Amino acid sequence: MAKDSKGKSFIEDKFVPVAAAIGGQRHLLALRDGIVMIMPLLIVGSFAMIIFQFPIPAWYDWIEEIGWGEGGHLDIVVGFTFGISAIVAAFGVAASLAGSYKKPNGEAIDGLPAGVLSLAVFYIITQIEEGTPDSAYLLVAMFFAICTGEVYRLFIQKGWVIKLPESVPLAVSRQFTALVPGIVVIFVAWIIAIPMTYTEYHTLANWLNEGLFGWLSSVGTSFPITMFAAFLEHLLWTFGLHGAAVVIFPFFEPLWLAVTNPGTTSIITWPFYENGIWIGGSGATLPVVIYMLVFAKSKLLKDIGKVAIGPGIFNINEPVTFGLPVVLNPILMIPFIITPLVLVIITYAGTSIGIFPILDRFIPWTTPVFISGFLAASGGIGSRLMAVVNQIICFVVAFLIYLPFIRAWDIINVKQEAGVK
Q1: Is pLDDT at 30 greater than 60 in this prediction?
Q2: Which is more confidently placed, 359 or 242?
Q3: Where is average pLDDT lowest: 10-14, 169-173, 269-273, 314-318?
Q4: Does 85 have pLDDT greater than 90?
Q5: Phi-psi region for residue 131, left (φ > 0), alpha (ψ -120 to 50) or beta?
Q6: Helix axes 286-294, 381-417, angle to 10 degrees
Q7: Burial letters for 191-219: b for 16+ Cβ neighbours within 10 Å, e otherwise?
Q8: Which residues are paired to 377 by β-bridges?
């Protein structure tokens, strides 16, 4: 018991404060903000993709016949939502990062000019060829957005800018403020981009994609690293920290988004984690909600079940994590951490041997389980149904893992409500 207490004390005193500091680190927050700006586009694009690629041959043929399919009206929506994700990230990350700093007088730096400059740098570095989606350079966009944001804020904080009288309208003075850092940023980007035009890669972005970022994608989409990410995310959740915001969104989501496209060979994709592991939200807690609705004896669990079922169906589980609670609950912390790890193993193993299909299509994160599996997989009806089978298996396994723990917590609450010590 003493060892357990020491272990818990170490995590609370040493590990959690470090994790909280990482979660509040301005560069990671900027990356998160950039991803958040992309998500509405991905949701809209996913709806369009679902409509024109719904796996019913007659429907697909009809969509193609009326000119709304491949290269048609719906495909335009897909192309200009998914396709511009890197552009949006380039703007959002740089603007967020620069805006997180303050001038020497304490006034917040206006981050919008940094976002605009980041767009220019992105296009200079990538020199995107016709037919290549901007989304292929998502990691490149985020990397140079961080660089641009840092350079811009340095010039502002050092006062290396053109200063106009206060009588000049803000909209005008803002542009002159950005002029000097803009010239420097764009000139440097141009200088470092030129040598790559004489290589087989043609652009710096291609070189980075095939080199450093290609390696990062390979490592980040590996089974061991995904297991580590799942463990760390859910460990943080059990101590009240938003594990997804600290670990998944800034570090892993960009890597998983970059390999998520129809036909990808990567088993680990963003839908793999979002729709295959988060069954009802982080910790795969929807089975817990079902237990509380159907089997719970205590008033607390029954009430939480009624409140949590609606959000849980749409993968929102704060009523469970903070209401049950899971946070700092030694009984429920164990299955909350273990369950996602087991689901990663099941889904990865089944996909690697060809039983389950790769989940390679973006769908809204609020899509209910079973429907999400069907829509996130490619291929015909049979392939998509196997994705649903995967989710059914994971749901049952999650329920069985949680069962002895949630039942014990239920019994404890029954006794407490009856006044039994």
Answers
A1: yes
A2: 359
A3: 10-14
A4: no
A5: left
A6: 50
A7: eebeebeeeeeebbbbbbbeeebeebbee
A8: 359
- The tokens describing 65, both together, are 């016949």
pTM above 0.90, yes or no: no
> What residue spans of 178-278 are helical by DSSP H?
179-193, 204-210, 212-220, 223-238, 243, 253-258, 270-276
Size of the chain, expressed as the number of residues it contains: 421
Q: Does residue 199 contact residue 127 with C-beta atoms inside 8 Å?
A: no
Query: Model confidence at 6, in pLDDT bands (50, 70, 90)?
Result: low
CA angle in degrees (0–180, nearest 5) for 317-321-324: 110
SS3 102: strand
Residue 43 structure tokens: 């949701």
Rounded distance between C-alpha atoms, residue 421 and residue 418, angstroms: 9
Answer yes or no: are the C-beta atoms of 303 and 293 closer than 8 Å: no
Residue with the two structure tokens 């680990």: 268
Report the half-sphere exposure of 242 (CA within 13 A, side-chain side). 12
The mean pLDDT of 270-274, rounded to a whole number, is 93
Give the number of other CB atoms < 10 A from CB of residue 396.
11
The C-alpha angle with vertex 410 and arms to 409 and 411, in degrees rounded to 5, equals 90
Confidence (pLDDT) at 1: 44
Q: Whole-angstrom Cα distance, residue 283 to residue 337?
A: 7
pLDDT > 80? residue 310: yes
